[in-house]
């Protein structure tokens, strides 16, 4: 631990020695009865707490904390986070110098406590002028496996993955949209823990691992959006998947109306999945129980409650590198895995500073590449002939969006100001000529950025959100991309 740090307990820049730091931490341990261990670049307080019996808390009980002052430690942080509930484990990421790395993970004993911590401590002023960020921590236990032979059944894939990796709990396989006897060429493998999934990924990721004579493609599956129980209790929309391509919205509505006529408000179908909106939640829940597993046009359907997504908060949350703010969150409801395969390789995430939060570490940017053989035929194409899943950035999505709606390209106007500490801050105003004379003549986000790229990306995000909410003009192809999991 460094010899001197700044004591922020009273908001003053008072120098605190390493000996004083150690004394403060020892006092905290003596007061609480928790153990503290430092290993692998992190310091763990608790895990489990004194007197704990049974397994660790389930997923959803941990929060991520960003923007922690580098000279602040557990003796100051733990009392703050204890306001939300009993801490199972507090993990503060540490530098070799003895300073913290600006972020931590706090695991509570219940999901309710974790949610309360997010509500009361996100943007909490931990020191004068210093605000921390608190959001849900994503403990991903699922891998995406691509290039699987389409004739393989779930049981075969499950057996094979158990042979080559440890900790496999389940395999999720989707039938082809056009041929229900085949899979879609990919699967999701669920592991018992994030560590087990990470070890499996490390073993499989080099790109040379083969199953059934095929080189498979491996990446993290996009994390499932957690929705609190109170919100789910209000949902009256059903997500229906594994439909035939030929099945119409009228057929779906008629089938779901059979158990109780007149209960379905409307149906929205996209490719081989649909959303069935009910007038009342009770009818939606009853229909889910009755219709799950039923056959429609020869296909056995799966029916679940659709998961609501707060569009703006999903775009603005997790800019700490844990989840990429791509266009998937622009649609109102989302489910665990959609019918399309995950794009291999992570899309580049927006830098953490867009939301003022720091990433635990620079996100690992990967791309799926294929060998370019001599003599390979190349065909010139326009970017607008592609589908939206070829674009990773909001800037490209906005350009694509305008083109698909036969609009002129968006116009970007750059503005700047100076921060209190002398930094040049930038923001873009975007004008969409096709709608400039309407209810909103321009779009400008409410945050300033320190780099040109960040400012442009944030402005494009902001514009897409408002276009979606006010005009509902997304093309079907873009909707499909938005739904991709």
State the CATH topology of the largest domain. Answer: Double Stranded RNA Binding Domain
Strand content: 25-35%
The backbone outline, from C-alpha atoms, is globular
Q: Low-confidence spans: pLDDT under 50, at least 5 residues?
A: 1-13, 311-367, 470-485
SSE-based structural type: alpha+beta
CATH architecture of the largest domain: 2-Layer Sandwich
> Rg to the nearest angstrom?
25 Å
The level-1 CATH class of the largest domain: Alpha Beta
Distance between the termini: 43 Å
How many beta strands in the DSSP annotation? 26
* Main β-sheet, spatial strand arrangement: 3-4-6-7-5-10
- Helical segment tally? 12
Please bin the fraction of helical residues: 25-40%
Mean pLDDT: 77
**How many structural domains are formed by the residues?**
4
Features:
485 residues, alpha+beta, Alpha-Beta Plaits, 4 domains, 6-stranded antiparallel beta sheet, 4-stranded antiparallel beta sheet, 26% helix, globular, disordered N terminus, disordered C terminus
